[in-house]
Design goal:
The chain has helices spanning 22-33, 45-54, 68-82, 106-134, 155-175, 193-206, 210-219, 229-240; strands at residues 13-17, 37-42, 59-62, 87-90, 137-142, 180-187, 251-254. The protein is built from eight helices and seven strands; from the N terminus they run βαβαβαβαβαβαααβ.
Length: 265
């Protein structure tokens, strides 16, 4: 009788982008606890240093994923430390502007796409030959509840996150024959500094108190709550572990069942 798969990443080598804070930090440290060797990149040097101090064994690179040359350098540093790759988590992303479509500037649209979508492309392009050579591995792309629902005044962000789901499903088709699984995680409203910035931007754009917006977001989830970064990291570890061995091409929501992101009634 074969040994059943377990929730264990012992011996796995992982790269997590934007891993120094928030969801990325939760993913990197959860993977380390599950036994993986982890390398993170981020644009914030101070937060990277804090992560390395608080989680000995995690290695890091200062890198902006929207810069192809920086991604190449980061992969070189990661491979020098890890010796190979089994898991890529494309977590890097920015909120983009909170504006009506006619008010969005060219550079606001471009920057949101560069980080949220082009950065994913650069990292995945580097990772796939390594995973193909091993004929195994897992890619996890962070989308959003906005990647399966509409969200007024956030067009660049929504467009990028819908695209992440499409890329995920297509790569699952391309890479399945090599034993590589590709999934997207779609977080809802996640407690933390980033969500506070989103609420502040919406408050400024709409003239609605941030606490009113917060209550409305909560009201429009079936479970009536925000989710924690650890809820997202738990799902990432699960799909990368042996327990997720037959999960691929999926957009997996971790959002308390978000019924709508239009939270202004």
């Amino acid at each position: 009788m074969s040994t059943p798969p377990i929730l264990d990443l012992t011996g796995k080598r992982a790269i997590v982008t934007a891993g120094a804070s928030g969801i990325g930090h939760a993913i990197a440290t959860a993977m380390q606890r599950a036994g993986a060797r982890v390398h993170v990149c981020d644009v914030d040097r101070t937060l990277l240093a804090e992560l390395v101090r608080s989680a000995p064994g995690i290695s890091s690179s200062l890198a902006d994923v929207s810069d192809s040359a920086a991604v190449d350098r980061m992969f070189g540093e990661a491979l020098n430390r890890l010796g190979g790759l089994d898991i890529l988590v494309n977590n890097a992303g920015i909120a983009g502007p909170t504006k009506l479509i006619e008010d969005i500037e060219d550079d606001e649209w471009r920057r949101t796409m560069e980080v949220n979508l082009t950065g994913l492309f650069y990292c995945t392009r580097r990772a796939v030959p390594l995973l193909k050579a091993a004929r195994a591995g897992s890619i996890v792309n962070l989308s959003s509840a906005a990647g399966i629902l509409g969200l007024p005044m956030r067009t660049p962000y929504v467009a990028a996150k819908w695209a992440v789901v499409g890329v995920t499903k297509t790569l699952a088709m391309e890479l399945g024959e090599y034993g590589i699984r590709v999934n997207a995680i779609c977080p809802g409203s996640v407690e933390g500094a980033r969500m506070e910035r989103v609420l502040a931007a919406e408050s400024a754009a709409l003239g609605i108190d941030p606490q009113v917006l917060r209550r409305n977001y909560v009201k429009h989830t079936s479970l009536g709550s925000f989710v924690a970064a650890e809820d997202i990291s738990n799902m990432v570890v699960f799909v990368c572990s042996g327990l997720g061995r037959n999960i691929s091409g999926q957009a997996l929501s971790v959002d308390g069942h978000t019924e709508t992101l239009v939270a202004r009634d």
